[in-house]
Amino acid sequence: MNYKIGLMGCGVIASYGHLPAIMDTDGLTIHALYDPNEQNLRREAHRFSVPHAYSDLESFFNSGLDAVAICSPAPAHIQNVIDCAAHGLPVLCEKPLAMDEVEGQQMIEVMEDANLLLAVGFCYRFSPCALKIKELINQDAIGEVRTMRLIYNWDCHGKYYRPDPLNQPDFWVEDPRRRGRMDEGGPMVDCGTHQIDLARWWTNSNITRFQSHASWVDEYEAPDHVWCHMDHDNGAHTMVEMSYSFGHTTKDRISHFIYEVIGTRGMIRYDRNFSHFELRNEHGTYQLEYHGEKNFHGMYAAFRQSLKTGELGELCSAPDALEVTRIARHATDEVIADRHALEVR
Predict the structure, then answer these.
(1) C-alpha closest to that of 187 among 231, 236, 220
(2) Domain tally, the chain
(3) Is 216 within the bounds of a domain?
């Protein structure tokens, strides 16, 4: 069967990740787009030769869809999912699932009541390296996992950009993409959900306790550099470090992305900056095949299979994604509250 996919939200993540993957996945067809922004809608419809493009919701849902990919900004996710449930359509929703626990629980309930699949798009799971880490842990290649350090420090596209570099090379304005992610909760709520999900998924263990620390380089409500320390129910500890202010005002961009998984008999190291992936244990050091941290194509191959079987496979379930959202949101809210408390002393 060839599943006709509708996509909601024609922004950057749809353009470079979701749409190419849908088009390249056998058994999936990108059938229709929805976006209230006509410029974004027409741009992506033209670029990917999508036959149907709508800024009207009912026209989109009446176009003959089999499933929907939600790529809209996080605040729109809840209404998008409610609308999909009302039209009987299974969903793959971008992370984070929701803005908070209340919204996430409502999304889960409305899809369960309609007996529809709701998966969450944690594309990091499908990187061959992430899958290999899970395989090695399951094979006891490093013994029992005790420590994980998951770090992604970057500039979130930079604080400023030039709208017209050709005619106004010295005119810079605040980048709306970065501003939007900071207004929605900052780095831990946005990209940090990937790392929290990986920590739980790799170890098949829940988080029993967590504590966060943060710093503010810019004066947003949310912190732009966050550390979250998490204790697992299997005895492991994970430190997630996320920054959106790492070189965000520098001329030359730089980022820092690593996974370090330390066990009782070895360790696994992944460093994107050096395209390096290795296993070290009592038998020696093994250089493993490196891949990037994202894999939208693998995620959509899994989504196609889930549409066929009704089983999630390695796709993230909505309840698991809700727990990730809860941790990321509470970790962020905790440091914001602490900062406000210091300000009034």
Answers:
(1) 220
(2) 2
(3) yes
